[in-house]
Design brief:
Layout (H helix, E strand, L loop, with lengths): L1 H9 L5 E8 L4 E8 L9 H6 L7 H15 L3 H20 L1 H15 L9 H9 L4 H12 L16 H8 L5
Antiparallel strand pairs: 1-2
Helix pairs in contact: 1-3, 4-6
């Protein structure tokens, strides 16, 4: 993903990063996260001790990625990679019987579906993801991210002073 490449591979800022969503009947949440040292949140202070220029930290890079998605959308290469990741994930899910049972159990118990309504793992990609296009994804990005109304949270034992975060976040259009 862009997050992993930019934050981990190119800049070495995070231990891990990613994004996920949780959907409910009338609402949901889309989360972008990163795990790292607190000094790398706004800028990479460890880097700046040995270099003259302080490179951006995790949060500015995340905002830059979101801005680029809003302005330019996803690429065909990213769509192809995402679809392949989904296919691979579905294959792994079908191997792990517990995952398949949990998925089907939720469909039946929480959504009042019958066994006839359940989509077998072998058909999930074709029924749910195959026809998702770059245009559809970019329309969703515009619908949900273009307003730049983000919530920001920092969780951990050692946190930066709130003034550091306020000073960083206040001039942003986000």
């Amino acid at each position: 993903s862009r997050l992993f490449v930019e934050l981990r591979e190119k800049r070495g800022l995070t231990y891990s990063s990613g994004a996920y969503m949780t959907l409910y009947e009338t609402a949901g949440v889309f989360v972008i996260y990163a795990t790292s040292d607190v000094d790398r949140l706004i800028n990479d202070k460890k880097y700046s001790e040995s270099k003259s220029k302080t490179p951006p930290g995790i949060v500015p890079v995340m905002f830059d990625i979101l801005d680029d998605l809003i302005e330019n959308g996803v690429t065909e290469k990213e769509m192809k990679m995402a679809k392949q990741n989904i296919k691979d994930s579905l294959k792994m899910t079908s191997i792990a019987g517990g995952n398949k049972s949990a998925y089907n159990g939720v469909r039946v118990m929480l959504h009042n579906e019958t066994a006839a309504d359940i989509i077998p793992n072998s058909s999930v990609f074709d029924k749910c993801y195959k026809n998702v296009t770059k245009t559809i994804v970019n329309e969703i990005i515009q619908k949900y991210f273009a307003s730049r109304k983000y919530y920001f949270a920092v969780i951990g034992g050692k946190l930066p002073k709130s003034t550091v975060l306020i000073d960083f976040l206040s001039p942003l259009k986000h």
